[in-house]
Amino acid sequence: MPTHNPSQGGLTPGLPTDRTSLLAERQAIIDQHGPWASHNLALPYGVFTMGEQPRGDNFRSSKFLQLARDVLRKPFTELRVLDLGCGEGLYAVEFAQQGASVLAVEGRTVNLVKAEFAGRALSLSRLEVRQGDVLEVNRERDGVFDVVLCSGILYHLDQPEVFHFLRNLRAMCTGVCIIDTRVSLTSEVEAEYEGRSYWGKLYREHAPGSSEEEKLQQLGASLNNDVSFWFTRASLANLLGDLGYSTVMECWIPTPYTIRADRTTFVAVPGSRARAFHEIGSGLHELRWPESEDAEPGLGGSGS
Ligand SMILES: C[S@@+](CC[C@H](N)C(=O)[O-])C[C@H]1O[C@@H](n2cnc3c(N)ncnc32)[C@H](O)[C@@H]1O
Question: How many A from CA of 111 to the centre of ligand 1?
Answer without folding.
Answer: 9
